[in-house]
């Protein structure tokens, strides 16, 4: 397989899943599987207006790049795209996109899953809730389930 | 040395970033926490549970309290991450 292509982008703007997949796969004949994951902003039972997402710019980029390289070393991936938005994100809008491409589906599924698990607990982003009631919400707490999800991958940190 | 703070730690200290001169005896992350505690109650407050404070040295996670600050230019303090 060709050297894996890694694209990491931290941005305020929305992304297009279709365009990202097209850019990753165009002109390539070695790929047999593309898995994509999109994380969205939930309205939490019609109570949440938006999430304010804060990030640590240089580190966010570096850390996701590092996680993507680790995934490429572990699975035979042909390419990875990871896009994470920051700023004020309304309920229903996209927050994060992960795409993993490979010859076969299992590596693509595992690569995307691994990337999301690490991204959630190791990439420096923090969410604050803004409620429809006008109440300024709290910073979202880290989830134990997210830490547990890392355990299945062994030590890759 | 540049210190940067994020999320509720930034809000509690009221500081996004600052330049500080660390004393010579502040050699690792644990020493840094001790030194910060002495700077006032806004620091003492969030450092009461040091195990929930995450530290990055020059944009790389430093998971151990013994992590050395030698040669480091930027230290970040933040709570557990909630991206994705």
Question: Which terms would index this structure?
Answer:
heterodimer; A: 157 residues; alpha+beta; Aldehyde Oxidoreductase, domain 3; four-stranded antiparallel sheet; 4 helices; globular; B: 84 residues; Ubiquitin-like (UB roll); five-stranded mixed sheet; 5 strands
Low-confidence stretches of chain B: none
Instruction: State the helical fraction of chain B.
Output: 25-40%
CATH architecture of chain A: Alpha-Beta Complex
Strand tally of chain B:
5
Written as H for each helix and E for each strand, in order along the chain, the element string of chain A is EHEEHEEEHEEH
CATH superfamily of chain A: Molybdopterin biosynthesis MoaE subunit
The largest β sheet of chain A comes out as: 4 strands, mixed
In total, the number of domains of chain B comes to: 1
- Helix and strand content put the structural class of chain A at alpha+beta
Q: Average pLDDT across residues of chain A?
A: 95
Q: How would you name the oligomeric state of the polypeptide chains in this document?
A: heterodimer
Share of residues in helices of chain A: 25-40%
**Class from secondary-structure proportions of chain B:** alpha+beta
Output the number of helix runs of chain B: 3
